[in-house]
Specification:
This protein is mainly α. It is built from 4 helices and 2 strands; from the N terminus they run ββαααα. Helix content is 43%, strand content 10%. A two-stranded antiparallel sheet has the order 1-2. A hairpin with a 4-residue loop joins strand 1 and strand 2.
Length: 105
């Protein structure tokens, strides 16, 4: 299994392969539950109260792996130019989807 994790103040990026027999929603739920328990019990994150309700997940080709790893490593640089909300809206629109206002404040 391939994992690449990097976080910012308001979100985290995870690059992972997922077997076809696993539901993405269940996978994300297990990550959020386990990490939330650990973070609340750990003294490393004293102000952590819990993850937000939603998440964004995107599929990609294995050929794009190296490009995505570079993006994750350099996300702070990317987010200086475009905040998370606008990036998600742009990605949705680039893929022919209307951004769902429930997920944007």
């Amino acid at each position: 299994m391939l994992y690449r994790i990097n976080g910012m103040e308001d979100h985290i990026h995870i690059l992972s392969d997922l077997h076809l027999s696993f539901a993405l929603a269940d996978y994300v739920k297990s990550i959020k539950v386990a990490s939330s328990l650990w973070m609340k019990q750990s003294s490393y994150f004293p102000s952590f109260r819990g993850w937000e309700e939603g998440y964004a997940a995107f599929t990609c080709s294995y050929k794009e792996k190296d490009m995505l790893i570079r993006y994750i490593k350099n996300q702070q640089e990317y987010h200086r130019k475009e905040d998370t909300q606008n990036e998600l809206k742009r990605i949705w629109m680039e893929n022919g989807m209307e951004p769902d206002v429930r997920y944007f404040t």
